[in-house]
Specification:
Two copies of one chain form a homodimer. By secondary structure, chain A is α+β, with helices and mostly antiparallel strands. In chain A, strands 1-3-2 form a three-stranded antiparallel β-sheet. In chain A, strands 5-4-6 form a three-stranded mixed β-sheet. In chain A, a hairpin with a 7-residue loop joins strand 2 and strand 3. The model of chain A has no long low-confidence stretch (mean pLDDT 90). At the A-B interface, helix 5 and strand 6 of A face helix 5 and strand 6 of B. Bound molecules: manganese (II) ion (MN) (2 copies) and zinc ion (2 copies). One zinc ion binds next to helix 6 of chain A. Chain A binds a DNA duplex through helix 4.
Chain lengths: 156, 156
DNA sequence: GTATAATTGAAAATGGATACCATTACCAAT
DNA sequence: ATTGGTAATGGTATCCATTTTCAATTATAC
């Protein structure tokens, strides 16, 4: 009998389609990400998975995250606090596209969706122009704001 | 007599004004940055300084870079290749403001100045709105493109 | 000069991420 | 059911950029 039951989630097809196995560690890592409201680090995910499946290793978490990023299901983010963070990519969930506001005081991260359309539109124009000018095949872009959140302004 | 002559460069005043000493390691690190055409890592800078002053340590390079960033003379950049990179900040030199195009194949980085005005204009509007909405004091922003450079497209 | 605090550099420590490798799980074909 | 090939796993060791520590040196104020 198979040790890992294959769930019937929206991502199951992506796995079989890609020739990957939807194992229990992978399944549970995706579930953690699916339920997350914050931007989780690999260790965050490891700890969460570990509560339910104590025999899942940190290495597997890293490897699975790499795979998920490569599959396009997950976005890897670096907010500058020394550890990578992960979230389900926008195309994955019906999640609205968003960008980030990062507090340099406490590392809090706020998702925002305002102006996204305008941002995307400008980025698209720039992309086209730069691709031509530098013969550069642009695959990705990044807009982000840094500053101090409400609480960190009043601190000190 | 002072061991370190204090240069009469444009940055000398910034040091005395801030209550910092313009020592030889600091002076030479700034000179390396001033002459750099690329985005240098701490080790790059260490090696360059080391050729002329072999007794300057890597620790001091890191510490000085932190100081320079804090003083606003230098920008610290993270292009995702596992090491921080540094450049004189735009306000420091008469350097035109620019953003970056990063090749995920070879880590080459291209400065571009196209559309900067439009970018800044949009960013300004967004900043104002987000500051209000989230009561977030925005101090900094980031626009960047990732992709494959000319050579990396033709490779493989 | 002497006092005082800032600055330095070598070595050790840190910590996130990765490499390694023996073991296990899965699956298709006997 | 058994087998053999391949994918996946998990613990450990390792990597490597950056920080910390601390004693020694240096710059500035007195
Ligand atoms: Mn987000
Ligand atoms: Mn640049
Ligand atoms: Zn904050
Ligand atoms: Zn390239």
């Amino acid at each position: 009998m198979p040790k890992y039951g294959r769930g019937s989630c929206w991502w199951a097809g992506r796995f079989r389609g890609g020739g990957y196995r939807l194992t229990m560690p992978r399944q549970s890592i995706l579930e953690v990400l699916d339920n997350a409201s914050k931007h989780l680090s690999a260790e965050d995910i490891y700890l969460a998975v570990h509560k339910i499946y104590p025999n899942v290793g940190l290495t597997t978490v890293y490897r699975t995250l790499d795979l998920l990023v490569q599959m396009g299901l997950v976005s890897k983010l670096d907010f500058g606090d020394g550890r990578a963070r992960y979230e389900l990519s926008e195309s994955s969930k019906g999640v609205k596209q968003h960008h980030h506001l990062v507090c340099t005081g406490c590392n809090r991260v706020i998702d925002y969706t305002d102006f996204i359309d305008e941002e995307i539109k400008l980025l698209g124009r720039i992309e086209k122009e730069l691709s031509k000018k530098f013969n550069f095949k642009i695959t990705n872009h990044l807009i982000r704001f840094y500053g101090l959140c409400n609480e960190c302004q009043n601190k000190k």
